[in-house]
Structure formats: C-alpha cells, structure tokens
Amino acid sequence: MRFVVRVMPNAKQTAFFSRNGAFCARLKAKPLEGKANRELEDALSEALGKKVKIVRGAKSREKTCETEATEDDVKKTFGAVRF
Length: 83
What we know:
- There is one protein chain.
- This protein is of the alpha+beta class.
- Helices cover 27% and strands 34% of the residues.
- The protein has one domain: 2-Layer Sandwich (Conserved Hypothetical Protein Mth637, Chain: A).
- The radius of gyration is 11 Å and the shape is globular.
- The mean pLDDT is 93.
C-alpha cells in the first residue's frame, strides 16, 4: 500500500497524527543528509510492525511511502478517521 505523509522535521519529539484528512509526522531529526527520512522510515516501520520505504519525495516535505501494512493499520497509527 502507498500513502503520503507530510513531514515536519526538527520537532521536540517524534509523533504521528492526522490533520484535515492528511497524514502528518513530526520528527526529531533535522532535514540534513537524509536523517529525517531515515527516522521516518524507522519510526513508521516500528509503529506499523512492517517495513516502510520512502518511494517519492526524498527532498520534499511530502513523502510517498510504501509498506505491506494494511490500510487499517496505517489509519490507526495516524489516528485518522478517514483515508
């Protein structure tokens, strides 16, 4: 499954949430040398229990991610009411 995440790097703590129907992630890492991308992949993989890979948007705030997790698992992780 593929989904888009809006990333906010350099936050106080890593957190996942849903805002206006979009998936969002606050990341502790700074957007330097791919650190925020690695943190997003690692934190999402841990939260979902399945490997997550960024497939588009490596240098953008909007990342397209791919995983084998189900749509319901992704919704639960982000606390989303709708997809």
